[in-house]
Write a structure and sequence with these properties.
This protein is α+β, with helices and mostly antiparallel strands and 150 residues long. The protein has a single domain, classed as Gcn5-related N-acetyltransferase (GNAT) (Aminopeptidase, 3-Layer(aba) Sandwich), CATH 3.40.630. The protein has five helices and nine strands, in the order βααβββαβαβαβββ. The strands form two sheets. A seven-stranded mixed beta sheet has the order 1-2-3-4-5-9-6, covered by helices on one side. Strands 7-8 form a two-stranded antiparallel sheet. A hairpin with a 2-residue loop joins strand 7 and strand 8. The longest helix has 15 residues. 30% of the residues are buried. The structure holds coenzyme A. Coenzyme A binds next to strand 4, helix 3 and helix 4.
């Protein structure tokens, strides 16, 4: 399986909604994002979007793997590719925000992300509907980053 950079229209919204439950937000940043996919026989099994939010600063906006294919290494392959690709763009850092402090946190830490801040009440402020994961309502956003200058 290889990672490909693809036009945003090729990414499955249904898949990305696994990572970002707001269709409205997804549609607002996808057209401006660098999009990457892993496909198996034309079917996208992993996808992510990266946005340059300010000069030399990028943000991983969403990453998702087909639920049938999770925990098989696809997300790690995609994430490691993106971390290296953004480094190759001459970036200072790659950031992300997550409300999920479960297995996803270890997934990001293994790829070199470190915690830098907590944005308290982010999910309460910015999403109209409450979001639950594993029965826990998401409230605070943990900010993580890979710094390419350390
Ligand atoms: C997060 C995600 C992209 C990781 O992709 P993946 O292909 O499943 O990840 P990998 O197979 O590379 O596994 C990374 C680790 O996460 C664990 N993991 C993956 N999916 C899991 C699941 N559903 N439940 C528990 N652990 C899981 C793996 O076991 C692995 O840990 P290990 O190395 O200790 O075994 C994917 O699980 C996903 O799409 N989740 C739903 C959307 C989401 O949460 N996106 C991130 C928003 S913050």
């Amino acid at each position: 399986m290889t990672v490909q950079e693809v036009p945003y229209q090729e990414l499955s919204l249904e898949l990305l909604l696994e990572a970002d439950p707001s269709r409205e937000k997804l549609l607002s940043y996808l057209p401006r994002s660098l999009c990457f996919a892993i496909k198996v026989e034309q079917h996208t099994v992993g996808a992510c979007a990266v946005l340059e939010t300010s000069p030399q600063v990028y943000e991983l906006m969403c990453i998702a793997v087909d639920p049938q294919r999770q925990a098989q290494g696809i997300g790690t392959q995609l994430l490691e590719y993106v971390v290296a690709h953004v480094r190759g763009l001459g970036a200072q850092r790659l950031e992300l925000g997550t409300g999920t402090f479960g297995y996803q946190l270890a997934f990001y830490q293994r790829a070199g992300f470190r915690a830098v801040a907590v944005d308290r009440d982010y999910f309460l402020r910015t999403y109209h509907e409450p979001i639950f994961e594993d029965g826990i309502q998401l409230k605070d956003m943990l900010r993580l980053e890979v710094s390419y200058r350390e």
